[in-house]
Design goal:
- Helices cover 38% and strands 34% of the residues.
- By secondary structure, it is of the alpha+beta class.
- It has one domain.
- It has a 4-stranded antiparallel sheet with strand order 1-2-3-4, with helices on one face.
- The protein is elongated, with a radius of gyration of 14 Å.
- It starts with a strand and ends with a helix.
- The mean pLDDT is 87.
């Protein structure tokens, strides 16, 4: 029986993961997480970690470009 979980990061719905005998496949619900679309993870928690890392990476890039633009 397949399992599905909603993945949320910082109060944003990143997507869902649907599990089967091979693992959990990610389906993005927001553009910021589209690069994870279709990726397979060993667990729903692994998918959540990847979504969280992706968002953190984007946030740090925005912070660096804001600092650079200020000079």
């Amino acid at each position: 029986m397949p399992k599905a979980y909603i993945i949320e990061v910082r109060n944003r719905t990143a997507g869902i993961v649907a599990g089967d005998e091979h693992g959990f496949r990610f389906f993005s619900s927001e553009r910021a997480f589209d690069s994870l679309e279709g990726r397979e993870f060993g667990s729903a928690r692994d998918a959540e970690r990847a979504a969280s890392a992706l968002l953190a990476s984007r946030r740090s890039k925005v912070s660096r470009s804001t600092v650079t633009a200020a000079f």
